Each structure stands twice: as C-alpha cells, then as structure tokens.
Amino acid sequence: MLAGKKVRLKFLFVSALALSISGLAAPAAVAGGSTPHSICHGVLNQLLERQTVERNLLEAAARKNAELIAQLEAERTALQNERQALVQHIQQLEQTLAALQNEKQALQQQIAQLEQELQEAEAELARVEAEIQRVQQELQAANERLAQLNQQIQQLEQQIEQKRQQIQQLEQQIEQKTQELAELRDEEQAAEQEIQRLEGELAALQDEKQALEQQIQQLEQQLAPLKTQRQALQQQIAQLEQELARVQALPGERVGQIRKLQEEINALKAQLAQLEQQIAPLEQQLQAANDELTRIRAEIQRVEQQLQEANDELARIQQQIQQLEQEITQLEQQIAQIEQQIAQIEEELAPLREERQALVQQMEQLEQQLTNLQQEKQALEQAIAQLATGLEEANAELARVEAAIQQTQQQILAANEQLALLDQQIAELTRRIELAGCV
Q1: What is the distance, to the nearest Å, from the Cα of residue 162 to the centroid of all Cα atoms in its chain?
Q2: How far is 73 from 71, CA to CA, in rounded Å?
Q3: If you count DSSP H runs as helices and E runs as strands, how many of each does the chain have, helices first?
Q4: pLDDT tier at 365 (50, 70, 90 boundaries)?
Q5: Banded model confidence at residue 13, pLDDT cuts 50, 70, 90
Q6: Does pLDDT of 410 surpass 90?
Q7: What's the longest Cα–Cα distance across the chain?
Q8: Whole-angstrom Cα distance, residue 430 to residue 438?
Q9: Whole-prediction pTM value?
Q10: What separation, in Å, do the N-terminal and C-terminal C-alpha atoms of the chain show?
Q11: What are the Cα distances from residue 240, in Å, to 254, 273, 274?
Q12: Residue 97 confidence (pLDDT)
C-alpha cells in the first residue's frame, strides 16, 4: 500500500514537469507572429503559473503521504494494544497452568495415600473376618452344649410347668368358685333386698292406683255437666244454621233477619269455644289419669311377678352356696399334694441350672465379642467403601485436571502463535511507516 502511494506521488511530479515543458513549447510555435519582448513576457508568466501548479501538487502529495503515515501508525497502535492484551492473557493462562499442575501433583499424592490406606483397611478386614469365624465356632459349640442342657432342663421344667398349670387351674377353679360364692352371697343379699324393695314398690303402686281411681272419678264428675252444656250449644247452632239457610233461600232481600241469625250463631259459637276451653284441659287430665292408671296396673302385675321370681331365685342361690363350699375344700387338698411333687423335681433341676448359667455367661461374652467384631467389620467395610469412593473421585478429578492442563497448554500455544502473527503485522506496519517517511 505504501509503495503504491509513492508511485502515485512520482507520477504526479512527472506529469507536472511534462506540463511545464509542453507550455514552453507552445509559445515558441507562435513566436513568428509576436515580438521578442512580448514572447519573453508570456513565457515568464507561464513559468510562474506552472511553478505554482507544481508547488500545489507537491503540497497535496505531502498531505496525502502524512495521512497515510497517520493511518499506518493508528493501525500499528491498535495491533500493539491487541498484542499487550494477548500477552496478559498468555500470562494468566500460564498461571492457571501452574495452578493445575500443582493441583495434579496434590491429587497424585492423595491417590497414593488413599491406595495405601485402602490396602491397610482390606488387610485389617481379613483379620477381623478370621477372628469372627473363630468366635462363631466357639459359639456353635457352646450352643450345642446349651441345647443339651436346655433339653434336660426343659423336660423337668415341663413337668413342673404341667403341675403348676394343674395348681393354677385348681387355684383358678378355687378363685372362680370363691368368686362365685361371693357373688352368690351378694346375690343372696341382693335377692333379699330386692324382695323387700318389690314389696315396698307393690304397696306404693297400690296406693297410687287408689289415688288415681279417685282422681278419675272426680274428673268425670266435673266433665259431665260441661259435656251436656256443649251438646246443647251444638244443637242450637245447628238449628240456627238450618234456619239461616232457609231464610237465605227465600226470595226477596232479608238482610236484617239474616244478620240477626248470623249474630246469634256467632254468639253461640263463642260460648261453645269458651266451653271447649274448659273441657279440653279436663279431658286431657282425664286421659292422662287413665293412661297412668293403665300403666300402674301393668306395673303392679309386673312387680307381683318379679316378687315371685325373686323368692324362687333366693331359694336357688342358697342351695348353690352350700354346694360351692364343699367343692372349694376338695380343690385345696389336691393343690397340697401337687406342691410336694414340684419340690422333688426342683431338687433335680438345681445343678443343671447352675451349669447352664455358667455356659450362658460364657456365650454372652462370646456374643459381645462377636458383636464388637461385626461392628468393627462393618466400620471397616464402610471405610473401605469410602476410600474406594474417594479414590474413584480423586482419579476422576485427576483426569479432569489433566484434561484442563492439556486444554490450557493448547490455549497457550494458540495464543503464542497469534502473538507471533501480531509481531509480524506490527513489523510490517513499522517498515511501511519508515518507507512513507522517506518519500
């Protein structure tokens, strides 16, 4: 680009010279018709004009060259700024690469430590499993002996249990019969109290019945004249209504007679309503008294029947009480005989139980030891699982870091290539700026 501008400047300069020469040649061609003084004067003017044109052309070329240099320097400045940013980016990438390499070294150390811990944990697990097997064998032998002892003891205890169950059944029978006896005595007392209560209730009901019969008689005496009066009023009203209907059917207007009949009917109906108000409560009282009397009679019949049943029940209860007392005495004698048999079996059981107790204590110690070993085994298995997981995670993290290192190295390589390209471009611009300055 810079070389092209130099060529254009030279072309403009040569064109200006050619124009000057052609201008000088033209006046000479017409010199035959002009005086020497006028010719010289004309040539001088043309030379001055051509010098002015040439000076303007040179100044324009110089301005063009200055603009070109300024543009090239601006491009070079932009490339230098881009280069500086790229250098900073490369430094950051190199710092990141150093951090990743440190992280990789730390992960490799961590993986080596985890592998060593995993091997140690697996060896310890094998030892614990062997110890568990030994304790389990001892427990199996102790269980077999304990099973023999338990079988012997169980047979004797079953005999005792059977006899105790017999005693328990007998005691339950005694308890049941004693409870039945107490209940029968309570029933006897309750039956006697019930008989007394029923006799008192029957007397009260008979008194209440007599009072109700007197009350009903009084109410009927009060209602008799009122019902007679009501019947008379109803007959009068019916007669007047018939008369009213007859008058209304006659031809001609009989307003006064009809009004009078209606007033008489209304007055009688008012008297009848008042009378009904007196009769209604009395009839209700009479109905209630009759209902109560019916209920009382039924109650008397029920109480008399209950009283008979209570007397029969009392006789039955007293007979059962006598029979239960004899049965309880026989059961107590059977229990005393069975208790003697149990004492003999307990003497045979004592040494067997002592041996079993010692064996159980030994087994408890072995079981506790086995529990501890199994807990230790479980803890080791968990630790191994955690170590394996940690090792797997660390390997995965190492792979990620190595991938990141490779990617960062590729980025640094690409950035350095880009930096070299920028340096070439800057050098080229610098060279073109120097050439433009020499023109």
Answers
A1: 54
A2: 5
A3: 3, 0
A4: very high
A5: very low
A6: yes
A7: 193
A8: 13
A9: 0.37
A10: 14
A11: 15, 17, 19
A12: 87
Torsion of CA 293, 296, 301, 307, to 10 degrees: -160
Length of the chain in terms of residues written: 439
Tokens 């009501």 label which residue? Answer: 230
Cα 439 to Cα 433: distance, rounded to the nearest angstrom: 10
The answer to whether the beta carbons of residues 261 and 247 sit under 8 Å apart is: yes
State the DSSP string of 392-420.
HHHHHHHHHHHHHHHHHHHHHHHHHHHHH
DSSP state of 30: T
Q: Retrieve residue 209's tokens.
A: 């019945």
Distance CA 60, CA 62 (A): 5
Structure tokens at 292: 């109560």
Q: Which of 271, 287, 290 is nearest to 226 (CA)?
A: 271
Q: How confident is the model at residue 382 (pLDDT cuts 50, 70, 90)?
A: very high
Tokens of 257: 């007679």
Q: How many angstroms separate the Cα of 351 from the Cα of each of 183, 244, 354, 373?
A: 47, 123, 5, 33
Positive or negative torsion for Cα 139, 144, 149, 154: positive
**Tens digit of pLDDT for each residue in 130-142?**
999 998 998 899 8
Instruction: State the Cα–Cα distance between residues 413 and 428, nearest whole angstrom.
Output: 23
